UniProtKB/TrEMBL annotation:
Pfam family, one: cNMP_binding
Sequence ranges assigned to domain Cyclic nucleotide-binding in this UniProt record: 11-57
Keyword Membrane: no
Keywords: Activator
Signal peptide: none
Source organism: Neobacillus massiliamazoniensis
PROSITE patterns reported in the protein's UniProt record: CNMP_BINDING_3
CDD domains xref list: CAP_ED
Protein name: Cyclic nucleotide binding regulatory protein
Keyword Calcium among record annotations: no
Amino acid sequence: MEGILLKYLTKFTTLNEEEQQAIVKDVLIEEYKKGTMLLRQGDVPTKCFFVLKGCVRQYSIDEMGKEVTSNFYTEEQAIPNFNHHKQDKSSAYSLTCVEDCILVVGALDTQNDMYNKYS
């Protein structure tokens, strides 16, 4: 799993090998099975994700009870959280793996620490 992230870092950054290895050691990479719900509409998100392998569906349930898909995230895409402007911080959408996935998982409360450490 780490190899996938290293390949991405080599392709899209100017970081040297030592810096890349340091980042890989500091991040959490997890596997999720197809059908795993990463975030439920109405919950407050505590994690952010980056797709190394697989596909994640973003959707919400409207007033009529219908599922409305708003996005699909695939390899090399970050899954953003746009709820910080809301008073209660709840998510307006759900995130579900539509196939087996390998994701970089970040804790939202430590995201700034990582950015400051490596920028």
